Amino acid sequence: MVKYYCCAGMLKSSWDQVCVAFWQRYPNPYSNHVLTEDIIFREVTPTNCLVSRRLLTKTSRSPRWMEPYLPKQMSSSAYIIEDSIVDPQKRTMTTLTWNISHARLMSVEERCKYYINPENGSCTEIKREAWISTTIYGLSRAVQEFGLRRFKNSVTKTMKGFEYVLAKMQGETPSKTLTETATERARETALAAKEKAKDLASQAQKKQYV
């Protein structure tokens, strides 16, 4: 049994910019889980389409209930194959990714199509489809639900990473990550507390001399 999921998204950048950003999106603050990316092959077809295949290595933290089924060296990392076709005539980019690590336990295939927004040529639409399956008897539903939750979380990070890279490409200031925002707030809180402590200490000292 295969679980199917489909969603759509939009980037407020042109198709050309998104295609360039696609190859430059690692590293970014939202992709710390991506360890390596290697091009296996790349060629231009007679119809001028750019066809590529890459191997990605990512950290992959498994839930505790799944760890007994995984070899030790495979429970913390995963290998992903990414195929892509860029068609400059049709102005589309199609990608297909799937995991080759512990695929018998959980297989996730993703297909994305990037194309120009028909109503706004300066924006790019993304249609994203995913197929999640497993061969674990008796736990298929749990594995698929886990895979779907992880996939949705990954999509959110992917879109934020895209926006971050596009902003840098266009000379804009990328929006801050949650970690950066939290760190700044913590610093501000610490400074405010420090100043308040100084004021209280100063007031206490003045009272002693009154």
Automatic annotation (TrEMBL):
Report any Pfam family annotated for this entry.
PRELI
Q: Name one GO cellular component term.
A: mitochondrial intermembrane space
User: What are the boundaries of the region Disordered?
Assistant: 175-194
- InterPro entries attached here? PRELI/MSF1_dom, Slowmo/Ups
Gene name, Swiss-Prot/TrEMBL: prelid1a
Q: Which domain of life is it from?
A: Eukaryota
Protein name (record): PRELI domain containing 1a
Q: Which residues cross the membrane?
A: none
Q: Where is the composition biased (Basic and acidic residues)?
A: 182-194
Tell me which residues make up the PRELI/MSF1 domain: 2-174
